[in-house]
Description:
The structure is a single chain. The chain is mainly α and 367 residues long. The chain has one domain (9-366). It contains 19 helices and no strands. Helix 3 runs antiparallel to helix 4, helix 4 (70-104) runs antiparallel to helix 5 and helix 4 packs antiparallel against helix 8. The longest helix is centred in the last third of the chain and has 42 residues, at 325-366. The radius of gyration is 21 Å and the shape is globular. The relative contact order is 0.15. Keywords: Membrane, Transmembrane, Transmembrane helix. The chain crosses the membrane at residues 12-33, 45-66, 87-107, 139-160, 167-188, 194-211, 232-253, 265-283, 295-315, 330-350. InterPro entries: UCP028704_OpgC. Pfam families: OpgC_C. This is OpgC protein.
Amino acid sequence: MPPRRGRSIEVDFFRGVVLIVIALDHIPGSVLSHLMLHTYALCDSAEVFVCLGGYASAAAYDAVLAKRGTQAARSRFFRRSVEIYRAYLLTAVLTLLSGAVLALFHLNRPMVELTGWPSFSATPLRETFDIAVLRRQPYLSSVLPMYVLFPLAVPFIVPLARRSASLALALSMVVWLAARPLAALLRIDDVGDWAFNPFAWQLMFVLGILCRVRPVDDGFLATNTGRWLTRIALAAALGFATVKLFILTQPLPGHLKQNLSTERVINFIAIAWLAVVLVRSGFIARLAQRLPGIVTVGQMGLVCFVGGTVISLVVDTATPRALHGVAHDLAAFAGDLVAIIAVLTLARVWRDWTRNARRPAVQGADV
Length: 367
């Protein structure tokens, strides 16, 4: 079955949900973050975010390729890499400025440490250089450096996936298996420097591309094999949830996420298969139509990611720490609601502003 043309409301909806979840997950005292994917699975919103990024990139590449040709498609993704690099620098600057303000007014000392402001203020020139060359990424900006690299590979991966999906997946898995030696070779294997090993996480990106280029056929889902795969995926998701809730009660080592461990990949694939079943049933599209604000967040992804970092820092700082018990939980829950509303508002304002900015240009062209 050929992939659908144009934007997918389901993908925009999932991206919107993930961006809101990322904002909540970066509020240390968040109440709602305890209800998110990482509580019930060995993977979390990062896998969803990267996989959806691969899907959206393949869709965008196909759209530009169909309208303007190969060279235009390649140029578009080079410019996209530059856009993400600028967004990374902006996020880093906003993170450090937030840390400086918090330090100046003696607020939220733990967050000051997380922002990296103390080390930056001690050696600003060296830190600036390290941030610029992606050697070090301040808190909340760490997912973007690998996104600077991924668009550069899109013009090569998408055509390869169209010619041979199995070959594209095999090459991606080889790189994933060799991710730690490759990272060590390029000296990006320190969790403190690169929270996401790009050689490992490219597997999620490629899986997203394959989901767009070679989607699961509706007819296959209805076959005995498809139904058995759905049962296996459901059993695996429930099994991982049981392990996470009742056995692995302590936080897992950071290198498992940094290098995209095997169990995270398997857990994500099981959940992704169930998501495909829900999408093909029409449930996600109906839900997205009832929640257009979340779809808008997904459409304004990069802006909402950058804005979400500031929102999470502000909400965490504004949440009272002297409260305890029910009062603390209510205050934290109120902070979560403020963060969600702020992200939704940012997406709508930015969408309206960009539409208004384009309108005079279009009208002038018509004249």
